[in-house]
Task: inverse folding
């Protein structure tokens, strides 16, 4: 559990906070609230009841506080310590506006905040904090400042003072022509913060750092506690057993997930309450799911009947056979295993391909408080390191869990030793897709060719080499010295942080559009300008030698080379085909090949028209004779082929005419009854009209094509 | 099937392989066409009489088909497979009657297993055909070769009809021809050209013919005699495939004795067991500003999980899978709602913060799909732990940019030669969330049968973001001294895997195999196998034999260093909370090489109690410690723990 928190934000709302200074587009208050809202919403986002917040206004028109003394006038407690919820954010937004006065003492407001914290937290364990945001104008009195400092230290409150245009030589802010009172106030506040061992900073820096995503620190729990074994201790005396624990080393942090809602009945979907979308929560009802079960029954209307969940047994599919498993031997299909990490053998580091890594990384450390285990594991880690080897082990994290094969790599740092553990692929996890070699071409006759348009020339290889060498990604350590690291610590999950900040922003600014991702999140989306500049000449040279040409979109996918449609021997099968007398008409059983072949031999448009007509007949007959959806896949294949071919032959009209008719007939139920499901398949396969974007000569505009597919 | 896609939600899994371009359903159908001639049926003796290796080419082919069928039930549960025998005396094609000889459409073609998702029964039938020695006469009769030659044209058209009717609109349809006859119609020109025409039909239908040639003992299979007229260069269903691979005909003709024939056939069939499906296609690889080539992405490594359990209805003649239908309802009215009405909202401050669908999409949009190089680093900069998931494999495509292949090749070779990686900004598909990734070059790897094992190309390894890196938990470091490390080095040296390489193909996933083995047994009502064939269990005997002495030496050294470092009074550390440490390491009489601080004490104690029958008198702490040390679950009440401990001893003795 995270610590309980009590944080009081003191916001200076004085009249001068409503002014714009130094050419900034926003007032000091708006500027400061960027920081305050970010901090508050970050806390709200945790959803923790024990992360409490209080908000105090300084230099307010009225006075709302328990210390009814003159010193404490123009200070208002707007929100007493507690969990902030959405309605509170809305209320605070309404309340926090510049006042008409400049009266009110910042030091007094700190006293009030202290008072609030002390009352609320009593002697309990809390992280206590006061944040003051001000522009440092107005009157401040240093009466009894020592007492304040002492109390602050005693109750252990962290004091953070952030000021608009406060001088900060370290960050590089210096306000010219500073008002002398402000200068004095700054001096007072700085010494106060420093004496309390708190933080004193300038607003510009605070706001600029809001951009840096904050990383949620997650405490890892062990995912395995057990024995690392070499050999079998149950059978042999010569087995090693080292008690170890396993923790995550990497684990992908997921963005917060959205839940499904529907507008509550009675509210118009899309209507927004005048006060903004933050009240919309009331208008949303959550979504429930319910599950029913159906089986196929040809005799039933619709071919399906509902069955009760209780009449069903648990089971699995084996091919197309359903295999029910009786409750009694439910575990029979699970392999019996016992927890443990058994070493299988060792592999050489330089023989291991890094792309075999299948999972996130874990670490293996010795059992806590077990010196012998840590000594034993240390010798394994060092032996692996010295031999430049990795271990391969079989890991079962809990009894009955399926075994994994893992790679164990040594990791030795100055103060830390562990094994890095990563899952390896099993035989079934490797898919053998084959691809031709990239450095040579083997011809059909088995000849090896090393010069070819698909192979790089020596000049291209040189140019590539120079370019790669000119594009070194430079990383540096804190001292600015170059390091051999990847920028992992500086890279932040773009989606996670973008969604998180969008939610927080929307909570405070319900009517604003969503923002672009912050620069930090997309820092690595492009090479740095400097690198681009440095490698420019090498890139130009590479590009000119490479001579890469973009394929115009129109010719993509078009039948480019008819001559490839020959068998390996190059035999002219088309010539043989034309000799076949019976191929004059397209036959139903061999329709697709014969349709294609007829088109490829067609010498005039009439032949194409005739072929389409024949094919169309076949398709319509298939639809008419289809029992339920039995012929639909064939119909889709036939239609798809027809469409593809006619796009290739640039004859969109013939297809469009046919498909228009077909749609009409289907929807009028002229082809053997209700064929809406088939129409759905046609839409899914995008088998509608051929539009202009596909074939220039088409008379069909894009909108028309889309409308055709959309309409029922 | 059609039903499935109609009702199923269009869920868009990150890793699902898509075919965005086509109206076809992304499924694969494989039909084996196995030549049953007398030469195919002649067993080829193994040169080593002790090895049980007699195998005829036909039975090797059937075994491969059986193997592939079993494998695909696991890996591609919705894909189809069938077996067509040709050149047989008898004929069978759906409900055609054997008696009306004259009217047979496809004489001497025997459709043994219809093209479909296999049923358990069909698996069993194929198994009995693959090992005919154990089968009954009916089965063996099927394998009677015909006296007259079979027409290849007829066989090819038979296959055409099977594909047309059983696997319509599949994106991948493949005919695997296994034969040792390289010139079926040597003396009949008419038959020969009829076959080439039928082969062309298959090509136009989108069926790929893949040949698995077998050389005869005295005759090398020569594809130029006949098959070069039958087989086409590019697969029509894979139009954007790179120039077709050198067909394996020359490289991997199966030959030799029974066993090696079977193995090489298996290896070349395995390499084509799944059709190539891309994960993303024609994504620009941006090498520099304004310099792009196009690549396709594939998943070559993907964790294979057993299919999820489902609900089975047993009320009818055959058991049937019940399909679950989910309806969405509004919580306040209970009315069914349309998907289009659903809005997404985030919980925040006790309420919902909502976005319109367009806003949701805008938030996820970080630009078009791209692999953009932002710089290069030495390969050594990639830490071994910097990994979050399996990699993607990329290979060039000429579809969008002519010249992609040569540029990709130059980059791949450069990265291999200078051991560098490219740092890339990677958006694999529209609206996918971007990652920073390391792109590394991979060299081609060939197995002992000359079949490609790992293709040449590049791999994209997504890196963890700072958000994904966990802090190391505290751990006490006791650095081992040199002599202890030396002793462990001797142990490690003894136990290298062959060639010092991890070879995935040697380790089938034991729980996956067991799962399907049991399902098969239940489906066929057979006895369960006794024990699993688990190749991942370490070879204990070998460890003992090869490294036993070294391990004992290491243990001695450990004892020595431990007593030096922690002394007799190990309790100096405040972390120590268990007492029996010194006993376990220093004075324990057994040779057992344990470094647990207290378990051996517990071990003895529990064992004694078991023998006396007083396990239930032990405390829960002791029971749990004992169970944990033996990899047993430690959840449950005390009675469960006692049961488990007793079970442990019962199994052992």
Result:
């Amino acid at each position: 559990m995270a610590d309980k928190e009590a944080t009081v934000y003191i916001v200076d709302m004085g009249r001068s906070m409503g002014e714009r200074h130094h050419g900034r587009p926003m007032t000091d208050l708006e500027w400061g609230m960027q920081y305050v809202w970010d901090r508050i919403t970050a806390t709200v986002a945790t959803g923790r009841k024990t992360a409490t917040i209080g908000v105090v206004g300084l230099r307010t028109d009225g006075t709302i506080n328990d210390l009814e003394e003159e010193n404490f006038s123009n200070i208002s407690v707007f929100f007493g310590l507690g969990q902030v919820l959405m309605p509170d954010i809305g209320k605070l937004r309404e309340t926090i506006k510049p006042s008409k006065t400049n009266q009110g003492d910042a030091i007094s407001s700190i006293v009030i905040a202290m008072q609030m914290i002390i009352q609320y937290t009593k002697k309990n364990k809390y992280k206590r904090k006061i944040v003051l945001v001000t522009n440092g104008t107005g009157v401040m009195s240093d009466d009894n400042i020592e007492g304040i400092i002492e109390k602050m230290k005693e109750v252990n409150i962290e004091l953070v003072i952030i000021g608009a245009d406060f001088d900060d030589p370290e960050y590089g802010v210096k306000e010219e022509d500073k008002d002398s009172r402000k200068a004095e106030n700054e001096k007072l506040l700085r010494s106060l913060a420093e004496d309390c061992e708190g933080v004193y900073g300038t607003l510009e820096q605070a706001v600029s750092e809001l951009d840096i995503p904050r990383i949620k620190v997650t405490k890892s729990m062990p995912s395995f506690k057990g024995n690392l074994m070499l050999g079998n201790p149950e059978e042999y005396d010569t087995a090693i057993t080292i008690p170890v624990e396993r923790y995550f080393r990497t684990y992908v942090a997921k963005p917060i997930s959205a839940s499904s809602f529907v507008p509550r009945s009675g509210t118009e979907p899309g209507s927004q309450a005048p006060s903004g979308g933050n009240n919309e929560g009331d208008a949303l009802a959550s979504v429930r799911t319910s599950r029913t079960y159906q089986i196929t029954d040809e005799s039933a209307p619709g071919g399906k009947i509902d069955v009760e969940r209780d009449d069903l047994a648990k089971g699995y599919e084996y091919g197309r056979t359903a295999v029910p498993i009786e409750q009694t031997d439910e575990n029979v299909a699970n392999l019996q295993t016992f927890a443990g990490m058994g070493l299988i053998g060792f592999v050489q580091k330089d023989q291991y391909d890094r792309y075999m890594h299948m999972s996130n990384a874990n670490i293996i450390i010795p059992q806590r408080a077990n010196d012998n285990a840590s000594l034993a594991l240390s010798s394994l880690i060092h032996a692996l390191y010295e031999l430049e080897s990795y271990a391969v082990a079989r890991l079962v994290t809990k009894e009955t869990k399926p075994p994994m094969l893992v790679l164990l790599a040594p990791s030795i740092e100055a103060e830390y030793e562990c094994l890095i553990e990563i899952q390896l692929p099993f035989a079934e996890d490797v898919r053998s897709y084959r691809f031709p070699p990239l450095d040579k071409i083997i011809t059909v006759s088995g000849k090896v060719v090393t010069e070819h348009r698909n192979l790089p020339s020596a000049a291209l290889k040189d140019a590539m080499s120079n370019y790669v060498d000119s594009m070194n990604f430079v990383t540096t350590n804190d001292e600015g010295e170059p390091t051999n690291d990847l920028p992992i610590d500086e890279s932040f999950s773009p989606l996670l942080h973008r969604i998180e900040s969008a939610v927080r922003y929307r909570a405070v600014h319900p009517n604003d559009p969503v923002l672009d991702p912050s620069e930090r999140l997309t820092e690595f989306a492009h090479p740095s300008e400097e690198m681009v500049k440095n490698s420019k000449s090498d890139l130009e040279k590479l590009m000119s030698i490479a001579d890469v040409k973009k394929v115009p979109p129109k010719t993509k996918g078009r039948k480019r080379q008819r001559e490839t449609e020959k068998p390996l021997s190059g035999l002219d099968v088309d010539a043989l085909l034309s000799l076949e007398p019976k191929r004059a008409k397209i036959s139903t059983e061999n329709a697709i090949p014969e349709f294609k072949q007829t088109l490829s031999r067609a010498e005039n448009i009439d032949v194409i028209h005739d072929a389409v007509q024949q094919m169309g007949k076949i398709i319509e007959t298939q639809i008419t004779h289809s029992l339920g959806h039995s012929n639909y896949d064939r119909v889709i294949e036939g239609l798809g082929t027809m469409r593809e071919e006619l796009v290739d032959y640039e004859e969109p009209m013939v297809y469009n005419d046919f498909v228009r008719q077909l749609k009409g007939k289907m929807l009028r139920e002229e082809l053997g009854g209700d064929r809406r499901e088939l129409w759905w398949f046609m839409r899914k396969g995008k088998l509608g009209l051929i539009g202009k974007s596909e074939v220039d000569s088409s008379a069909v505009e894009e909108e028309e094509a889309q409308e055709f597919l959309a309409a029922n | 099937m059609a039903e499935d896609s109609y009702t199923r939600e269009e869920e868009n899994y990150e890793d699902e392989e898509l075919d965005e371009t086509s109206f076809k359903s992304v499924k694969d159908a494989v039909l084996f066409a196995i030549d049953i001639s007398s030469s195919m049926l002649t067993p080829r003796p193994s040169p080593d009489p002790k090895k049980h290796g007699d195998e005829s080419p036909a039975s090797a082919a059937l075994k491969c088909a059986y193997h592939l069928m079993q494998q695909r039930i696991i890996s591609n549960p919705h894909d189809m497979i069938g077996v067509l025998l040709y050149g047989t005396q008898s004929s069978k094609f759906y409900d055609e009657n054997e008696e009306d000889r004259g009217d047979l459409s496809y004489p001497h073609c025997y459709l043994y297993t219809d093209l479909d998702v296999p049923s358990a029964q069909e698996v069993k039938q194929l198994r009995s055909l693959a090992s005919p020695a154990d089968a009954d006469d009916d089965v063996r009769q099927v394998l009677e070769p015909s006296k007259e030659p079979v027409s290849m044209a007829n066989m090819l058209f038979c296959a055409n009809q099977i594909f047309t009717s059983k696997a319509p609109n599949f994106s991948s349809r493949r005919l695997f021809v296994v034969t040792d006859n390289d010139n079926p119609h040597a003396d009949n020109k008419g038959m020969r050209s009829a076959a080439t025409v039928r082969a062309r039909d298959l090509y136009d239908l989108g069926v790929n013919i893949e040949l698995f040639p077998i050389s005869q003992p005295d005759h090398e299979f020569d594809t130029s005699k006949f098959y070069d007229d039958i087989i086409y260069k590019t697969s029509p269903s894979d139009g954007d495939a790179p120039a077709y691979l050198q067909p394996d005909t020359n490289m991997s003709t199966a030959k030799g004795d029974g066993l090696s024939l079977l193995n090489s056939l298996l290896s070349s069939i395995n390499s084509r067991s799944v059709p190539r499906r891309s994960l993303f296609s024609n994504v620009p690889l941006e090498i520099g500003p304004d310099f792009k080539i196009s690549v396709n992405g594939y998943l070559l490594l993907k964790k294979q999980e057993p299919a999820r359990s489902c609900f089975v209805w047993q009320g009818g003649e055959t058991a049937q899978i019940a399909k679950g239908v989910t309806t969405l309802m509004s919580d306040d009215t209970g009315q069914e709602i349309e998907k289009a009405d659903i809005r997404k909202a985030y919980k925040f401050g006790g309420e919902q913060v909502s976005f319109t669908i367009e806003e949701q999409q805008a938030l996820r949009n970080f630009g078009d799909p791209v692999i953009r190089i932002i710089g290069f680093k030495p390969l050594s900069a990639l830490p071994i732990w910097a990994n979050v998931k399996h990699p993607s494999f990329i290979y060039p495509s000429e579809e969008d940019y002519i010249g992609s292949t040569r540029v990709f090749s130059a980059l791949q070779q450069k990265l291999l030669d200078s051991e560098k990686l490219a740092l890339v900004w990677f958006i694999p598909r529209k609206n996918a969330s971007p990652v920073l990734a390391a792109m590394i070059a991979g060299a081609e790897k060939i197995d002992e049968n000359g079949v490609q094992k790992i293709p040449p190309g590049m791999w994209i390894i997504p890196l963890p973001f700072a958000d994904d890196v966990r802090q190391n938990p505290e751990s006490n470091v006791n650095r081992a001294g040199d002599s202890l490390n030396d002793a462990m080095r001797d142990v490690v040296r003894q136990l290298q895997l062959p060639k010092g390489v991890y070879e995935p193909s040697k380790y089938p996933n034991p729980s996956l195999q067991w799962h399907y083995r049991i399902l098969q047994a239940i489906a066929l009502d057979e006895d369960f196998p006794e024990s699993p064939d688990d190749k991942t269990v370490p070879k204990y005997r070998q460890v003992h034999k090869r490294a036993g002495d070294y391990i004992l030496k290491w243990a001695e050294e450990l004892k020595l260093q431990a007593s030096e470092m922690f002394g007799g009074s190990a309790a100096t550390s405040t972390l120590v909370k268990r007492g029996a440490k010194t006993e376990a390491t220093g004075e324990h009489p057994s040779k057992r090489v344990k470094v647990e601080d207290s378990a051996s004490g517990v071990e003895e104690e529990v064992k004694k109690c078991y023998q006396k029958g007083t396990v239930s008198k032990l405390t829960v702490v002791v029971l749990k410690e004992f169970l944990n040390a033996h990899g047993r679950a430690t959840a449950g009440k005390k009675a469960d723990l006692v049961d488990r401990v007793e079970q442990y001893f019962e199994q052992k003795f």
